[in-house]
Write a structure and sequence with these properties.
alpha+beta, Kinesin, Four Helix Bundle (Hemerythrin (Met), subunit A), Alpha-Beta Plaits, 8-stranded mixed sheet, 31 strands, 50% helix, Myosin_TH1, microfilament motor activity
């Protein structure tokens, strides 16, 4: 919206009517036309008083930007155009400023946009509340819980591509400042699965949605799970359960006849069953039997019966439903653990309820019956709270309250939920009754008990007015709800209400090695068998609705009614018949009539006077008295009938919308008159301003022109004077120049004559000197030639003499050499063999080294290849070279290690020295890396309290089994090793149970067998040894003993004694008990068991 078009009321620039309370005339046709007109102009929100109607546009609209959030922030509800942000802001400010708990109820049928509406409410609240690192983390977790719940709780249906299959109620908790602290999600199971067997779990065609990137959505869900607080192994477990549910849909059965004539069922393809068993960790024979047989227990007797094909398919679908339902409940509980408020201070609460609306189909069954029952309860509380709110406002404003006639649907709610003769009570009674129970017997019972009820209709009842009603089939009954009559097919009511899961399937699921699946079926534990019949679906639903109603009555309600404009999920299409159907069952016209029963419009005095003050001369343009007095003067001036309005304490109440529209028409006409007046004044001001500007401009131009003309005249006079001066100065200068040139010519003539005379004299003297010099040069040349001839003769003589002396020296040298050779010839022959041997040996060694250079093995320390020895005499040299090369490449390999790798290899080397050839468990630990921190304490919010209690670095964090000193039974404990202490903590709560300083640890004992038992001996007399030594069992014994040994050596500078023996003593309180390891067959596979024989002996059976 442009800056000049800022709206101060929803009445400004209104398309249609923004508040249905003001609609005139009020009927179904005008109601739909108003919605359609606003929908065609992209106005999808409309008010009914404080209720927001939202029409799904099936396209993105630019009305949810951060700018829109700021526009609606801290604004009055009726100040701007209808928007879901206005209702969200009103609810948040009431919670923050008035300390009132709020609830936002979002209703509508599938595809009407309820889920998107709830996300918009949460995103707005997250945007306007406080900031900060912790607050932003809480907001991010609350917002990211939606993608997780949508991924597992929504599905593609015929009506909606992202239909939520559950009823979600989220309580967002705030502190006194209005900053979010956390939240709690309640899964009321208000949406039941229509027909589970219709879904083909692995059919890709039914799961495709145009324009949706499944891979991107999957990455979004995994990221959201990580933000909410799911560990990696938890996310993988959830996906494994989902895969198992999908695989269950592929199992098919075939009939077989037994010898005794009974029919039984068999699984067609056991490969599908095998894949499910691999995912869940269940023995294939156990699950196959659970699909083929059913065991019924009564007191001390068990009866096993075979299942036919129909019963087997029922068991398969029941298992799939229960498995996925329980998984979803586990997901909700797990999310609640992460997003719940950590503080115990008093909290303010805002609830958001996303629930399905009233359902009227061609075929209505048990699901539509209980959903419509829930909507009856919501309609009941809605009417009560709306009337209560109206009455409270009238009393607060001192307006006389008039009784409002409306339809009270409490009689319909009593027909359904009455504990004695209600439909649900009779359905439960029929399900629990011994003997043959069918849907027909249930209908007969309804006909007997409810025949006289004015809202119950059945053709088989005692009431004669329905006997000939052909629109009412014999196998149906009809209830007159507040939204209209609904015909229910009684077929399936009993089976759907029972909703039983065979105990054999529960016990099979409990036997799964998959931890998550096992935890989902606690009733399958044989030690906790409960023969009591589980509650029916109807009773569970009734309890859920009662809990929901009780919760809603403690909060201030805010309503959003969602409407689907068409069944094609397309934009710009408004199907009036479909919208009319939704308006009827949502009771919107009834809502408007209740709202208009008293006064249709109310407004505070200040904005009312500000909006209409221009209609009265006394109040325009400013009213200096109280706002109420100004409104009274205004209404008296306009001669509005007194019966059309009333004055409250802070608001003006207008009874009929026509009065308000009359005020709006008068205001519009007055604004046009004011606009004309403003235009007239503006045009006069503009013309006067233009004239004054032209006058001022003319004076300035004239002044500038006169200045320019004087400057030009002055420049011409000055230029003429300069020209005359220049001519006179030029004439004088030329005259002086002629005189100076004449004087200069006379001086130059004298100088030239003198120069010629001096030149003649100089040339004569030069000729004389040249002649004299020529004679002296001839004498010098003759003398030089004579001296050269003399020098050459002397040089020739000296060369001849030197040549003779050299010849004598050469001859003498040759003679001396000859004498030496003759003297030493006999010695040379004697040493020739040794020198040849040394030379040959040197060449062989040189060749050996050159060949070794080309045959060197790789630099891997485990490479044992080495070139063969070429000569026997090089054997020792060959071995030494091999040893030196191996040491060198080992050093090169070690130089590549990081500090972390060195530490790992040092620990592995220490473990080898301690346990190699001593402990049978050691070889299996060689290939396992020492991780230390097996529990992600820093990441898991479950152990936040434990993490805060430990300030030292954690070396080992592992779950071990602590052996009870009295009976030998094991208890799970968290084993923590730090630099100075050994700690034991409770696995569930994270509370520290024991803390032992390392200086008090004296010895560690263990057997030589392939088991994980070990004992930690404590120093006698120390505080930690008051209850005696500890006996543990762990899957990482070698790593724990090695790290304990190294840590103790580092802190105490003393080696910890590691005792490996199949029989050793431990101190339990004041007694010494012998722990003895024996070989034995185990009942539970390969897991060692521990048993206390007597006061002095504890036996450990090792497989």
């Amino acid at each position: 919206m442009a800056k000049m078009e800022v709206k101060t009321s929803l009445l400004d620039n209104m398309i249609g009517v923004g508040d249905m309370v003001l609609l005139e005339p009020l009927n179904e046709e005008t109601f739909i036309n108003n919605l359609k007109k606003r929908f065609d102009h992209s106005e999808i929100y409309t008010y009914i008083g404080s209720v927001v109607i939202s029409v799904n546009p099936y396209r993105s609209l630019p009305i949810y930007s951060p700018e829109k959030v700021e526009e609606y922030r801290n604004r009055n509800f009726y100040e701007l155009s209808p928007h879901i942000f206005a209702l969200s802001d009103e609810a948040y400010r009431s919670l923050r400023d008035q300390d009132k708990d709020q609830c936002i109820l979002i209703t509508g049928e599938s595809g009407a946009g309820k889920t998107e509406a709830s996300k918009l409410v949460m995103s707005y609240v997250a945007a306007v509340c406080g900031k900060g690192a912790e607050v932003n983390q809480v907001k991010e977790q609350l917002l990211q819980s939606n993608p997780v719940l949508e991924a597992f709780g929504n599905a593609k249906t015929v009506r909606n591509d992202n239909s939520s299959r559950f009823g979600k109620y989220m309580d967002i908790e705030f502190d006194f400042k209005g900053d979010p602290l956390g939240g709690v999600i309640s899964n009321y199971k208000l949406k039941l699965e229509r027909d589970f067997s219709r879904y083909n779990y692995l059919s890709l065609d039914s799961a495709k949605v145009n324009g949706v990137d499944d891979a991107a959505n999957f990455r979004t869900v995994r990221n959201a799970m990580q933000i909410v607080g799911f560990m990696d192994h938890e996310a993988e477990s959830v996906l494994a359960v989902v895969a198992a549910v999908l695989k269950l849909g592929n199992i098919e059965f075939k009939p077989e006849s037994r010898v005794n004539g009974l029919d039984e069922s068999k699984i067609k393809d056991k490969n599908e069953l095998k894949e499910i068993c691999e995912l869940t960790g269940i023995d294939q024979s156990v699950l196959e039997r659970a699909f083929s047989f059913r065991t019924v227990e009564a007191k001390q007797e068990k009866v096993s019966t075979t299942l036919n094909v129909a019963q087997a398919y029922y068991a398969r679908d029941a298992l799939a439903k229960n498995l996925y339902s329980r998984l979803f409940s586990w997901l909700v509980n797990r999310i609640n653990e992460s997003i719940k408020a950590q503080t115990k201070v008093r909290k303010k609460v805002m609830g958001v309820l996303d629930i399905y609306g009233f359902e009227i189909f061609e075929d209505n069954s048990f699901e539509q019956f209980i959903i419509n029952y829930c909507n009856e309860k919501l309609q009941q509380i809605f009417i009560e709270l709306t009337l209560k709110e109206e009455q409270e406002e009238y009393i607060r404003e001192d307006i006389e309250w008039t009784h409002i006639d409306y339809f009270n649907n409490a009689i319909i709610c009593d027909l359904i939920e009455n504990n004695t003769n209600g439909i649900l009570a009779m359905l439960d009674e029929e399900c629990l009754r011994p003997g043959t129970v069918t849907d027909e017997t249930f209908l007969e019972k309804l006909n007997q008990v409810c025949a006289t009820h004015q809202h119950f209709e059945s053709r088989m009842s005692k009431c004669s007015r329905f006997l000939n009603d052909t629109s009412l089939p014999h196998s149906c009954f009809r209830i007159q709800h507040y939204a209209g009559k609904v015909l229910y097919q009684v077929e399936g009511f009993v089976d759907k209400n029972n909703d039983l899961l065979y105990r054999d399937l529960s016990q099979a699921m409990w036997k799964a090695s998959h931890a998550l699946i096992k935890s989902l079926f606690p009733e399958g534990n044989p030690a906790k068998i409960n023969l009591k019949r589980p509650p029916t679906a109807g009773s569970q639903f009734k309890a859920s609705v009662a809990t929901l109603m009780k919760n809603l009555q403690t909060k201030n309600p805010n309503y959003i009614r969602c409407i689907k404009p068409n069944d094609k999920k397309a934009a710009h299409i408004f199907t009036e018949a479909l919208v009319c159907h939704q308006i009827r069952y949502l009771g919107l016209l009834e809502n408007v009539r209740v709202r208009r029963a008293g006064y249709a419009f109310r407004q505070a005095y200040e904005p009312c006077l500000e909006r209409y003050k221009m209609l009265c001369k006394q109040t325009w343009p400013h009213w200096k008295g109280p706002a109420r007095s100004g409104v009274e003067v205004l209404f008296n001036e306009l001669e509005i009938p007194v019966e059309e309005y009333s004055f409250g304490r802070s608001k003006i109440f207008i009874r009929n919308p026509r009065t308000l529209f009359k005020l709006e028409d008068l205001r519009k006409q007055r604004l046009e008159d004011l606009a004309t007046l403003i235009q007239k004044i503006y045009r006069g001001w503009k013309c006067r301003t233009h004239f004054l500007l032209m006058k001022k401009s003319q004076i300035v131009i004239a002044a500038w022109y006169r200045r320019y003309a004087q400057q030009k005249r002055y420049q011409q006079t000055k230029s003429s004077a300069l020209v005359i001066q220049s001519y006179i100065r030029g004439w004088k200068a030329r005259k002086i120049l002629r005189e100076l040139k004449h004087q200069k010519r006379c001086k130059e003539a004298v100088t030239t004559i003198a120069a010629y005379w001096h030149g003649t004299q100089a040339r004569r003297e030069l000729r004389r000197l040249k002649e004299e010099a020529r004679n002296k040069h001839a004498i010098a040349v003759i003398w030089a030639y004579w001296l050269g001839s003399k020098a050459r003769r002397e040089l020739k003589r000296l060369k001849e003499e030197a040549r003779r002396k050299h010849a004598v020296a050469v001859i003498w040298a040759y003679w001396l050499g000859l004498k030496v050779r003759r003297e030493y010839r006999k010695f040379f022959r004697a040493n020739a063999g040794k020198k040849i041997y040394e030379f040959t040996l040197q060449r062989i060694v040189q060749k050996y080294f050159l060949e070794m250079k080309n045959k060197m093995p790789s630099l891997s320390p485990i490479d044992k290849n080495w070139p063969s020895r070429p000569y026997l005499f090089l054997d020792s040299t060959h071995k030494e070279l091999k040893r030196i090369f191996h040491l060198w490449r080992c050093k090169k390999y070690r130089d590549q290690f990081t500090d972390q790798q060195k530490l790992i290899y040092e620990e592995k080397l220490e473990a080898s020295e301690l346990f190699k050839d001593k402990k049978a468990l050691y070889p299996s630990s060689v290939g396992q890396p020492f991780q230390g921190a097996y529990l992600e304490i820093n990441k898991n919010p479950k152990y936040k309290k434990l993490k805060d209690a430990i300030e030292e670095k954690i070396i080992i964090a592992e779950v071990v089994n602590k052996i009870n000193r009295a009976n030998g039974k094991s208890t799970s404990r968290i084993f923590l090793l730090t630099n100075n202490n050994l700690l034991l903590a409770d696995q569930k709560s994270g509370q520290i149970k024991s803390e032992v300083p390392l200086v008090d640890v004296t010895k560690v004992s263990m057997s030589s067998q392939n088991d994980g038992f070990f004992a930690v001996h404590l120093k006698e007399g120390s505080e930690a040894a008051s209850k005696g030594d500890f006996l543990f069992s762990s899957d990482h014994l070698i790593e724990m003993a090695t790290k304990l040994y190294r840590t103790t050596l580092s802190q105490t500078k003393q080696k910890l004694n590691i005792e490996i023996s199949d029989e050793f003593l431990v101190q339990f309180r004041q007694d010494k008990v012998c722990v003895k390891f024996i070989q034995g067959n185990q009942k539970n596979g390969s897991v060692p068991t521990c048993k206390r024989k007597n006061n002095r002996l504890l036996e450990v059976a090792v497989p």
